[in-house]
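Hi, here's the filled form for the chain we discussed.

Project: internal
Contact: R.S.
Residues: 126
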Amino acid sequence: MKKIITTVNAPAPIGPYNQAILAGNTLYISGQIALDPKTGELVSGDIKIETEQCMKNLKAILTEAGMTFENVVKSSIFVKDMHQFSQINEVYGAYFDAETAPARETVEVANLPKFVNVEISMIAIQ
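And the returned structure, exactly as it came back:
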């Protein structure tokens, strides 16, 4: 059985998907980009600002599901330019304890939704 997880504190889906699905004790969070949930506008400026907004959106969804970043077991990071990885990693890493951080892959892609520079999805367990 699956439960749809939604919160007004993260951007509303812009297609046929949900912010997250809780299946059993596993939470699957859709990829988050740097959209401000209050305005629906892209947050831009530099890659650190974009990554911070992605993480805030992910945190809001985790919170709605009664979880924290400590529950995250897997992250996927999609970047437009791998040269920005160290800056993305700096922001991302601030949300995790290095010793218990989740598994992760980082993939450079040609384009992302709304032509943003970074998108992050996560899987968490209760």
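Let me know if anything looks off before we file it.
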